[in-house]
Amino acid sequence: MVEDFRLRSVAAAAYGPAVLFGLSEGAVLPVVVLSAIDRGASTSTAALIAALLGVGSLVANIPAGMLATRIGERRSMLLASAVMVAGVVTCLVDLGRGPASLLLYGCGILLIGAASAVYSLARQSYLTEIVPAHMRARALSTLGGSIRVGVFLGPFAGAGAMQVAGLPGAYYVSLAAIVAAAVLVFRVPDLEVTAGERVDAAAVTTRGMLRQWWRVYATLGVGILLLSAIRQTRQTVVPLWAAHIGLSPTASSIVYGVAGAIDALTFYPAGKVMDRHGRRWVAVPATLVLGASFVVMPFAGGAVALVVVAMVMGFGNGIGSGIVMTLGADVSPPVGRPTHIGIWNELADIGAGAGPLILSAVTALAGLGAGIVASGLVGFAAAGALWRWIPRPQRAGPGTR
User: Fold this and answer.
1) Listed residue (185, 195, 204) closest to 67, CA to CA
2) Are 286 and 317 in contact (CB under 8 A)?
3) Which residues contact 56 (CB under 8 A, 6 or more apart)?
4) Which residues touch 275 (CB under 8 Å, ≥6 apart)?
5) Other Cβ atoms within 10 Å of 6 Cβ, number
6) Contacts of 307 (CB under 8 A, 6+ apart)
7) Is 171:24 a contact under the CB 8 Å cutoff?
8) Do residues 206 and 65 touch, judged by C-beta distance below 8 A?
9) What phi and psi values does residue 189 have, to the nearest 5 degrees?
10) What is the CA radius of gyration of the chain?
11) Distance from C-alpha of 41 to C-alpha of 381, rounded to nearest angstrom
């Protein structure tokens, strides 16, 4: 079929590097705190260093958009690969226990976060350009699924390497994966850009983009911010509630893994529904299901009940795979698209940072159950915002409804 052929044709350009880059990140993520503690950090300091991944992404989103607008998506991905290599190598330099070693390690983690932002934006923009509009959701949800596969496999590959080389083994796996991703990207042809398009792109500024599209960022962008908040919080509430009801760390990990498996199995069908019936058919149910799973979680008093709730949560998150990227692409201008996507991703990252803070604040005031319910209400607010502001028509091309 034409559709299958087209998706296969972009596998080397987008999906292969996405899996490898996700694997590179996934190998490192579980050992960040452990590596910091090994260098003498307290628990709170180690948590702060881990947070530098998000800080690097926040700082780099908008510059990444301007970079891709100026030099193109392929070169941006190659540059991001180089920065990622520099970050991982910096993390491997161990100066012993002490502030200097922690500072150097923190710089490496910051670079990894920044590289992730640049790479994510460039591959998203690249795929948006080369995939027909009527297949956009499937393409981008598959991209989101590819990243999740890589992040899922990374910890296992890192764990195997650590059996041989200790903590540095995880970083060696990360290096190998990112170099392999760069090789794939290097073989991908650049997007064709005319001289006129280059001139137009050179005139794009972040301020001008904000001035022209502020209504989109202040409406649909708020929905994306709220969606990102509850999605990020879901990674925290399952282990927290598992510990609250007395489950062992092993049982908690199994519950989390089951939810992750459901999450990873639903990305392609969701993209197909979005392309055929419109974005609301997935965006609104995804946020409603996520919100409902949060609200009922405090009633899960045992392992079986928590597994069921976690599976529902995984389903809600999984069917929303790629929705942030798809909506960002739908409302992006043809000139300066990477700059727009940089702003869009910044909104999503702000939401991702705010979600756990809401959970923490309400929990401190009224207890964990109340904090989880309050986070669920954020999901309902996201559903309302997305229902109100997702534009019509949902897509262009054959079969538009």
Assistant:
1) 204
2) yes
3) 109, 110, 111, 112, 113, 114, 115, 116, 117
4) 134, 135, 136, 137, 138, 395
5) 15
6) 255, 258
7) no
8) yes
9) -70, 150
10) 21
11) 39
H helix runs in 72-167, sequence order? 73-92, 99-130, 136-165
Q: Give burial (CB, 10 Å; 0-12/13-18/19+) of 246.
A: exposed
What pLDDT, on a 0 to 100 scale, did the predictor assign at position 399? 37
286-304 mean pLDDT: 93
Q: Quickly state the pLDDT bin for 233 (edges 50, 70, 90).
A: confident
Are 245 and 306 in contact, with CB atoms under 8 Å apart? yes
- CA separation for the pair 272, 185 (Å, rounded): 26
Q: Which of 191, 189, 190, 185 is nearest to 81 (CA)?
A: 185
pLDDT value, residue 9: 62
Kindly tell me the burial class for residue 204, based on how many C-beta atoms sit within 10 Å of its own C-beta (0-12, 13-18, 19 or more).
Answer: buried
- The whole-angstrom separation of Cα 204 and Cα 70 is 9
What is the average per-residue pLDDT within 116-144? 84
Structure tokens at 93: 């330099």
Average pLDDT of the residues in 346-353:
90
Indicate if the pLDDT at residue 189 is higher than 80. Answer: no
Q: Which of 332, 71, 32 is nearest to 80 (CA)?
A: 71
- Find the mean pLDDT for residues 157-162: 85
d(CA 223, CA 241): 26
Structure tokens at 326: 């798809």
CB 129 within 8 A of CB 189: no
Mean pLDDT of 99-127: 90
